[in-house]
Design a protein that fits this description.
Elements lengths: L1 H6 L6 E3 L4 E3 L10 E7 L15 E4 L7 E8 L15 E5 L5 E7 L3 E10 L5 E2 L4 E2 L1 E5 L7 E14 L15 E22 L2 E22 L2 E4 L13 E14 L7 E7 L5 E10 L14 E5 L6 E7 L4 E6 L5 E6 L4 E5 L6 E9 L4 E9 L2
Parallel strand pairs: 4-13
Antiparallel strand pairs: 1-2, 3-5, 3-18, 5-6, 6-7, 7-8, 8-9, 8-11, 10-12, 12-13, 13-14, 14-15, 14-16, 16-17, 17-18, 19-20, 20-23, 21-22, 21-24, 24-25
Length: 374
């Protein structure tokens, strides 16, 4: 799931006209949306990614689902340490388990990742980067557009406890610090028709090159200094910037119903595709969290639930409930007698589910995320 969370940009759509596609902000996935992806873990390496040109045809119809994938776009307050990112408009949480949280800022002109929270080996949430401002997409975007993403940095310090510059009139150096920065060079390098098992889409291809920069500082005389100020240390190590050679490709479709990028695959430094490719599976319609009708009041508690979950729907005589797992399989159905239902969910495995509520006529009332914890 980290693959999709680190690459997700939120749903952006395209408009196709006279051999050109334009990405705009109009269909960016936002608070309350949910997107379902699939991962093919075997067949990515056999795909023909084509060339950097217009009027391409990418035939990915042979892909099959080996693993489910996807994400919930939720209120930032649902994630830990969210107070560190007050400008975030939504947070992306893992569909299967909340193992990583990406905080997004969206405007009419750009979509940025401004924060990341992950969990350490003891299960505690942590912020791994000193700074993070990742220009994931800018608008409008068309074929042959390009831009550089701001960098995100991580610091690692090592206390040596010795004087590595040896004898002589050098200042004492007792610590070294490395700062690792990751940047991204972006280009819309192709357009054409992307063919998936779920259908065909006019698309733009988004090429992303990973850039790595390492800076090294030394500590002496009560201050951190650039490595270049130490004639001794600079003989052995210096700051470097280089292209890792790793490239990822994402395809963005022209249908607002997709509400997400359509496919994503990584390549190695030789241009060989990775064996795993993510591709669009489906999007709930209407969006997650949408409540149909101001006369309807839905109450669901507790959420997360472990044994019994109570659902009350005011404004209807009765209602039906169904629940889907991350594979979009229907795992639970129940019909109410009256406007309240007490449901035993203790037999369901822990995880995230989609709860669908319909009134007595079959009209969809609400689609909502439910978390089961045991």
């Amino acid at each position: 799931m980290k693959r999709i969370l680190l690459s997700m940009a939120g749903g952006i759509s395209c408009l196709f006209a006279t051999a050109q596609i334009t990405l705009t902000h109009d269909y960016i996935a936002t608070l309350g949306d949910t997107v379902f992806m699939s991962e093919d873990t075997l067949n990515g390496a056999s795909l023909d990614l084509g060339s950097a040109a217009g009027n391409q045809v990418w035939d990915f119809t042979s892909l099959i689902e080996h693993e489910p994938d996807g994400a919930f776009l939720e209120d930032p307050s649902t994630a830990p340490l969210s107070s560190n990112f007050p400008e975030a408009d939504f947070v992306v949480n893992d569909l299967e388990e909340d193992s990583m949280h990406l905080f997004f800022k969206q405007t009419d002109d750009y979509l940025d990742v401004i924060g990341l929270v992950e969990y350490d080996s003891t299960g505690n949430p942590t912020i791994p980067f000193l700074s993070l401002s990742w220009r994931f997409m800018q608008f409008p975007a068309e074929f042959q557009d390009s831009w550089s993403s701001s960098e995100l940095g991580q610091e690692q310090s090592e206390h040596l406890g010795v004087d590595p510059d040896s004898l002589g009139p050098h200042p004492t150096i007792d610590s070294l610090r490395s700062r690792v920065y990751f940047g991204f060079e972006n280009e819309i390098d192709a357009w054409g028709e992307l063919q998936l098992p779920a259908g065909n889409w006019m698309s733009l291809r988004h090429r992303v090159v990973n850039i790595l920069r390492i800076e090294v500082d030394w500590y002496g005389d009560s201050a951190w200094r650039p490595i270049s100020e130490s004639s001794f240390l600079s003989l052995f190590i210096d700051s470097v910037t280089y292209d890792t050679g790793d490239v990822s490709y994402r395809w963005w479709g022209d249908n607002p119903a997709a509400n997400f990028f359509l496919a994503e695959i990584e390549t190695d430094s030789l241009g060989n595709p990775d064996s795993t490719v993510s591709f669009l599976k489906g999007v709930p319609e209407p969006p997650l969290g949408l409540r149909m009708g101001s006369d309807i009041n839905v109450q669901l508690f507790p959420n997360p639930a472990s044994d019994v979950m109570t659902i009350t729907v005011e404004g209807v005589e009765s209602f039906s409930v169904s629940m889907m797992d991350v594979n979009m399989r229907n795992v639970w159905n129940e019909q109410s007698i009256g406007s309240t239902m007490n449901s035993d969910v203790s037999s369901l495995p822990s995880g995230a589910y989609l709860l669908q509520i319909k009134d007595e006529s079959g009209r969809l009332i609400e689609l909502q995320k439910v978390q089961i914890i045991h």
